[in-house]
Each structure stands twice: as structure tokens, then as C-alpha cells.
Design brief:
By secondary structure, this protein is mainly α. Helices cover 84% and strands 0% of the residues.
Length: 345
């Protein structure tokens, strides 16, 4: 019972860390890009990953965690995919409003469900699908009101959806099949994620923004926000791997609805993003969908645990009864043999 409570506390802590760090970095990056004019999203992402790797390397040197070797080909492909995914997400943030960016992240849910159903043969109950439908309905209502839409931003969002779905499914699959922790996987894949973005970032940013990241005038305020963004990114990257490993890609994306509400609220109050009554209605419907999802998941998990415990107790009873019977038979056989021997004597 203590282990279960500890595990649940670990999951809650991971979810809280994910929400807090994600909302913080969205607000920080949006202020950096929209208000301060630093629109080099891909380059910024590479700096995020470099700082993340350096932080984990120091933690490894201080023996905070043990490194575990993973097949190099798997790590390289996984790192490149996640690097591209993160780059597209940050580009989507840079060229869309905060609201549409969060809606893009929530739109990942149905594609993740589809991929897991087709390729991993994972089953989702009708109740879970219904809750996800309600959630996506809320997303649809809120996203229709978001008028800050552009072709480039939409294309980047679609690419972000595709790469993120595959990347998050692999994040969960690799941790469970290879028995590695979120920290170990992030530590080994971060250099490859950083490398591809560090090389291509300035070129991509220059093509999209028509500006050179090295020619940008870095004021003390811009540098302060960049450093703050990199520090928050360490928590974002770590909590992302942690949550996906402890729960599932779909649950991680459902968690995004809370981030959406908080981010839209902060965006409206601090950055003066458009916020209408339809946004509020859509968010409330999305919250309802998330609530239903949480309730149905909890109910199904409890039901599954009861079945597992019942099957486990039956197996235990069967195993414990077999030796007793065997021992009893052995004693009976010994007594018969002894009686026979005594009669012969």
C-alpha cells in the first residue's frame, strides 16, 4: 500500500511539474518572441537542449543517477525525431497565437490514439473515446474563435503534430521495453536533439524570419529572458519524459488542457491576446472532457487492479495448496508403507 501511495505521489508531482514548467516557458518564450522581437525559435530550442544536457551531465557526475547504455542507432533516431518535433512546436509557438499553439498540442490526442490503436494494438474503451471527443469538441470551439491564423503557422502546426505523436509514443515504448528511466533516456538523446537543431536552427530561422540570429542586438533584458527560458526548459524536458514514462502519451496530452486554460489566462492578462466568450465556453467544455477522461481512467484502472489482484490470489492459492496436498499424499504413502512393513515384520 505504501508503494502504491508513493507511486501516486510521484505521478502527481510529475504532472504538477509538467504543468508549472510548461505554462512558464510558454509565457516566457511568447514574451521573448512577440514583445522583445527574438523570433529565432529553432535556435532557442537548441540552446534549451544544450543546457538540459549540461545540467544532466553535472547531475550524473554527482551520482544523482546512473547511466544505462542504449543501442546507439535507437538513441540517434529517437534524438533526431524529438529534436525535429521540439523545433516544430517552438516554431508553431512563434508563428501562432498562444491559444492556437495550445490547440495544436491538444490536437495531437486523436492522432496518438489512432497510431497506438493501429501499430501497438492498444484498446481504448468507448467511454474513454467519448471523453476525448468532448475534450476535442471544446478544443474545436475555442480554436474557431482564434482569428490569429496564418498559412505558415498552420503548416508548422501540422508537422509538429505528426512528429510529436511518433516521438511521444517512442518515449513511452523505449522506457518500458528497454527498462530505462526518463532521466537516462533524456541524458543520452539530448545531445543528438541539440546537435540537429544547433546546426539547422540558424539557417531555418534566417529563412523564416529574414533575420540573422548572430546579428541580433542582445540587450540585457533579452539575455535575461533567454537564460530564464533555458533554465525552465530543463524542467520542461525532464517532466515531459517523466510524465510520459509514468502514464501514457495520451494522458500527457490530456494534461495539456489545464496548461491551455492557464496559458490563455496569462496570455490575456499579461500579453493582451484576444479572449472572447467562445474561448471561455470552449475551455469549459475541454475541462469537462478532461474530467470525464480522468474519471473513466481511474475507474478502469481500479477495475483492472481488482481483476489482477483476484487472478493473483487465485494463482497464489493454487500454488500454496499444491505442495500441501503433495505433502499430505507423501505422508499418507509413508504411513501405508510403514504399516505394510510392520505387518511384514
Amino acid at each position: 500500500m505504501g508503494e502504491l501511495t508513493g507511486y501516486q505521489l510521484g505521478v502527481i508531482g510529475a504532472l504538477f511539474l509538467s504543468v508549472a514548467s510548461s505554462v512558464s516557458i510558454v509565457i516566457c518564450n511568447k514574451a521573448l518572441m512577440s514583445n522583445l522581437g527574438f523570433t529565432f525559435a529553432t535556435t532557442l530550442t537548441s540552446w534549451h537542449l544544450v543546457v538540459t544536457y549540461c545540467t544532466l551531465h553535472v547531475a550524473h557526475r554527482l551520482n544523482f543517477f546512473e547511466n544505462k547504455k542504449i543501442d546507439m542507432k535507437t538513441v540517434i533516431l529517437f534524438g533526431i525525431l524529438n529534436g525535429v518535433s521540439i523545433g516544430f512546436l517552438n516554431l508553431s509557438l512563434g508563428f501562432n497565437s498562444i491559444g492556437f499553439y495550445q490547440m495544436t498540442k491538444l490536437a495531437i490526442i486523436p492522432f496518438t490514439v489512432l497510431l497506438e490503436t493501429l501499430f501497438l494494438k492498444k484498446q481504448f474503451s468507448q467511454k474513454i473515446k467519448l471523453s476525448l471527443f468532448v475534450l476535442l469538441l471544446g478544443v474545436g470551439i475555442a480554436s474557431v474563435t482564434d482569428l490569429q491564423l496564418n498559412v505558415l503557422g498552420t503548416i508548422l502546426s501540422l508537422l509538429a503534430i505528426a512528429t510529436t505523436c511518433v516521438g511521444q509514443i517512442l518515449t513511452n515504448t523505449i522506457q518500458k521495453r528497454l527498462n530505462v528511466s526518463s532521466t537516462q533516456l533524456l541524458y543520452q538523446s539530448a545531445p543528438f536533439q541539440a546537435a540537429i537543431l544547433f546546426v539547422t536552427g540558424p539557417l531555418v530561422d534566417q529563412y523564416l524570419t529574414k533575420q540573422n540570429v548572430f546579428a541580433f542586438k542582445y540587450s540585457p533584458l533579452v539575455l535575461a529572458f533567454i537564460i530564464l527560458s533555458c533554465l525552465i526548459a530543463v524542467s520542461v524536458n525532464f517532466s515531459t519524459f517523466l510524465v510520459i514514462g509514468k502514464t501514457s502519451p495520451v494522458t500527457y496530452q490530456v494534461l495539456g488542457h489545464l496548461k491551455t486554460c492557464l496559458v490563455l489566462g496569462f496570455g490575456y492578462t499579461l500579453l493582451h491576446d484576444p479572449f472572447t466568450q467562445r474561448n471561455i465556453i470552449g475551455i469549459l467544455v475541454a475541462i469537462l472532457g478532461m474530467g470525464l477522461y480522468s474519471y473513466f481512467c481511474t475507474h478502469e484502472n481500479k477495475k483492472k487492479q481488482m481483476i489482477d489482484l483476484s487472478q493473483g490470489s487465485q494463482i497464489k492459492d493454487k500454488d500454496s495448496s499444491t505442495p500441501l496436498l503433495g505433502h499430505q499424499d507423501k505422508e499418507n504413502h509413508f504411513e501405508v508403507k510403514k504399516a505394510t512393513k510392520d505387518s511384514l515384520v
